[in-house]
Design a protein that fits this description.
alpha/beta, Purple Acid Phosphatase, chain A, domain 2, 6-stranded mixed β-sheet, 7 helices
């Protein structure tokens, strides 16, 4: 069995993410084998360029620039150590020149390229297929990066835009070729109620209709929900961060847990009683792994 945590927009809050997953793993006794992230990881290199929106948010919440802590050879200790690999698809708030540099340094045939010096955080090249080896056989994962409907903004970096050709490249593989799809943008036509709704991506919709992966996850809109396209279960994830008022509680709906076995797949949200009361300050006092109490986990 493979246990995969799928995470919404992180916007630099990697320390928070690893703390949540580490405590959950300890208290549930269920190890996490892989983390998938649907874009807006907030992969800003130390000293590199930061987009205007991220800079504005970081003035209030410095954790928006938290990727830098994990970019070097000696990242800080976390409750999840030894950390499983984190594989992400770029969104629209990343250090794109840095990602381009890391992409060029990788082999042309590789589906992944590392963005952290310890090799634990990797980007999935859009339009590529990567197989994660599990005891029950490979889990085939594909991704499409960027956002749709920004083509009129010529000043934006090309990597920010969703390219239809990336989605079509995966679609050409045909039915049954992909098990899980991750994208930052959402497929068109699933719901019209999203904040900042611009219709989603027709190319993503076509990809899902043609390939019919078992699961498809997206972020960007910070709005959770589940939908069905043909035989595919489509899950929208909220961001993994804080509600920015009061004590800044941890947001709900930013992490889904997938258990992949030879006999089937289950998906459940990660939400527990101890996370219900977690705030920007309180999670920092969870201590080391040895100091976290054992206990049960409740479903939400």
């Amino acid at each position: 069995m493979a246990r995969i945590a799928v995470v919404g927009d992180v916007h630099g809050h990697l320390a928070l993410l690893y703390a949540i997953l580490g405590r959950w793993q300890r208290e549930s006794g269920r190890p996490i084998d892989l983390i998938l992230q649907v874009g807006d990881l907030g992969a800003f290199a130390p000293g590199g360029p930061v987009d205007q929106a991220t800079r504005r948010h970081a003035e209030r919440d410095p954790e928006e620039l938290g990727f830098a802590e994990f970019a070097g050879e000696h990242p800080p200790a976390t409750l999840l150590d030894p950390r499983p690999p984190l594989v992400f698809i770029p969104g629209n708030h990343e250090d794109f020149p840095f990602l381009e540099e890391r992409d060029r340094a990788a082999g042309p045939d590789d589906a992944l390229y590392p963005v952290a010096q310890d090799g634990r955080i990797l980007a999935l090249r859009p339009g590529r297929l990567w197989s994660f080896d599990s005891p029950d056989g490979p889990v085939r994962i594909a991704g499409v990066s960027g956002v749709a409907h920004r083509g009129h903004k010529k000043h934006l970096h090309p990597m920010l835009h969703l390219r239809d050709e990336d989605a079509l490249r995966i679609a050409e593989r045909g039915p049954g070729s992909v098990d899980m799809l991750i994208s930052h943008e959402r497929p068109a036509g699933i719901d019209g109620s999203f904040r900042h709704d611009l219709g989603g991506s027709d190319a993503l919709r076509l990809l899902i209709e043609e390939v019919q992966p078992q699961l498809a996850f997206f972020g960007h809109y910070d709005w959770g929900g589940e939908y069905v396209i043909g035989q595919t279960r489509v899950v929208g994830l909220r961001s993994c961060g804080y509600v920015t008022h009061g004590d800044w509680p941890v947001k709900r709906g930013g992490i889904a847990l997938v258990e992949w076995t030879g006999s089937g797949v289950t998906v459940e949200p990660l939400w527990t009683e101890w996370l219900e009361s977690a705030t920007r300050q309180s999670w920092r006092h969870w201590g080391t792994v040895s100091g976290v109490r054992s206990g049960g986990v409740s479903k939400c």
